[in-house]
Design brief:
The chain has 221 residues and is an alpha/beta fold. The protein contains 9 helices and 6 strands, in the order E-H-H-H-H-H-E-H-E-H-E-H-E-E-H. The chain has 2 domains: 138 residues, Rossmann fold; 67 residues, DNA polymerase, domain 1 (Orthogonal Bundle), CATH 1.10.150. It is globular, with a radius of gyration of 17 Å. The structure holds 1,6-di-O-phosphono-beta-D-glucopyranose and magnesium ion (MG). The site of magnesium ion (MG) has 9 residues, from loops.
Length: 221
Amino acid sequence: MKLQNKKAFIFDLDGVIVDTAKFHYLAWKNLAKKIDIDFTESENEQLKGVSRVKSLEKILQWGNKSVSDNQFEKLMSSKNEEYLSYVDKMTEEDILPGVKSVLDFLKSNNYLIALGSASKNARIILKHTNLTHYFDVIVDGNEVSNAKPDPEVFTKGCDMMDVKHEDAIVFEDSQAGIQAANNANMISVGIGSASILNEADFNFNDFTEIDEQVLNQIIAF
Ligand code: B16
Ligand code: MG
């Protein structure tokens, strides 16, 4: 039996492993246009890591609009349809630079790896990009009832791996996700703009900046 390392790594999906954030943005933007709402790229930051329901609630709020429950459901499924049309074209080439070598390093050094994503489409994306086999545990939007910044998506994964929360290292690209990791006493690593993710314990622009030496520093933190 392989000796498992004490620390575990939890990866967010959208914006960390793959750049599906751009697909979400495009699909929400087009949907919002249909109901005469426009929103800025900086407002879009607030949609990252946030569930589908919460995202639509925010967009409607920005446009000062309210819709019936039935209409709300229709809008969500229309957004998801467009989003999935982009996801369907994804391949291994859509994995963000540097991600695979970090996953390979962690796997070959017997670290447990979990996925902690708000997305209900996480499994389809992992399948398209051929990454499913890296993950010991997958927790996605189908399994949690509380959205980030609530830490449920991360604590659930941690508990399934039998790892203490303070021994978990979370890679996140969203403000809500960094707050979720911090709320659970986990080590938070921001992937993206350091000024946006200023509450993270560590910041990197992308995974190409994370080599073995950096990983060992994070592990020793
Ligand atoms: P879906 P993550 C999140 O994924 C996205 O960042 C967020 O923009 C999206 O609204 C949410 O998933 C729900 O996605 O509509 O596919 O269920 O960053 O937590 O991996
Ligand atoms: Mg994300």
